[in-house]
Design brief:
Four Helix Bundle (Hemerythrin (Met), subunit A); Rossmann fold; eight-stranded mixed sheet; 13 helices; disordered N terminus
């Protein structure tokens, strides 16, 4: 069992996901029920209405069309498809589009040679710093030693916020003055983690997107300097997205994936939005797994993404 598995039972995880998806589920079900009302079979009209439901649920146009085409193929193959079967078909198609990552249910796998280096990226305001703090808390609860690296030196508040989390979770933080070279901070943080024999080091990075070339160069430089100390660093590049921004989150994901190689996604504020369908579109379009979801404001309100629980929660009324 992975480290996260020791912290949360599968049932607890599913309960949290169900609660977090309540607004999305209510919205999808209301629209879906309306789309099939009075219909006995899946015909062109039902498919048109279903397409509208998925797009308005922030699944995204491209992914929606992929789902509709798959259902059309099943209708053609089976000749007759009742609307009562639509929920199950949608479950299967959506589950097939959500990317899985080996070991995702247990959160992560520690490398043989530590520290495990986690680099976190994302625009300002999506909950990046909060996610880092919650991750540090989970790792510490799992019995791991953690070091934080405040490499977002572009914004003074970012360092201050991370320092508050380091105090709250009671883990050391490595920081420099505002405007310092982010790569230098990252180097110092990894070096500190090595000297402390720490298990995990989490590196916060700048969240600006206004100059993609500079962002790309900066993230590349951070990787290069960390690799001088840990050759296979970073072991994970986690992109944090705000689920409540819907399709804007998908656009952010596309931009960041051009700037650096993203290996996993964290969706925050899932509990406060009806736009949870964006997880499907992002995972499908970018072929990157959703690994963590934020389902509340509390320090423990971060969960490992469970694909099966997500799909079940979305379609169980």
């Amino acid at each position: 069992m992975g480290l996260f598995g020791k912290l949360f039972s599968r049932e607890e995880n599913r309960e949290e996901i169900e609660q977090g998806l309540e607004k999305t589920r209510q919205s999808v079900f209301a629209k879906l029920s309306k789309a099939v009302a009075g219909k006995s079979k899946v015909d062109a009209e039902v498919l048109d209405d279903l397409e509208e439901v998925l797009i308005s649920s922030d699944v995204g146009i491209d992914t929606t069309l992929k789902i509709i085409e798959a259902i059309e193929e099943r209708v053609a193959r089976d000749k007759y498809l009742g609307t009562s079967e639509l929920n199950q078909i949608l479950r299967e198609e959506i589950a097939g589009l959500l990317k899985s990552k080996e070991g995702a249910d247990s959160g992560f796998s520690l490398p043989e040679k530590r520290p495990y280096v986690l680099m976190v990226v994302g625009v300002n305001g999506v909950g990046k710093t909060t996610t880092i703090g919650k991750l540090a808390n989970q790792f510490k609860k799992a019995g791991l030693s953690v070091v934080l690296g405040a490499a977002d030196t572009f914004r003074a508040a970012a360092v201050d916020q991370l320092e508050i989390w380091s105090e709250r979770v009671d883990v050391p933080i490595v920081k420099q003055a505002m405007g310092s070279d982010p790569a230098s901070v990252a180097f110092d943080a990894v070096q500190s983690a090595i000297s402390r024999n720490a298990d995990v080091v989490i590196i916060d990075t700048a969240g600006r997107l206004h100059n993609k070339v500079n962002l790309m160069n900066e993230l590349s430089k951070i990787k290069r300097v960390m690799q001088k100390l840990v050759p296979d660093a970073p072991h994970e590049v986690l992109l944090v997205l705000d689920a409540s921004t819907g399709q804007n989150a998908l656009e952010q994901a596309k931009q960041f994936s051009k700037a650096t190689q993203i290996t996993a996604l964290a969706l925050t504020k899932l509990d406060g939005t009806a736009k949870g369908g964006v997880a499907i579109g992002i995972s499908d379009q970018l072929q990157i797994p959703v690994k963590y979801i934020g389902v509340g404001e509390g320090i423990d309100d971060l969960r490992v993404f469970d694909k099966e629980a997500f799909v079940n929660s979305l379609f169980e009324n």
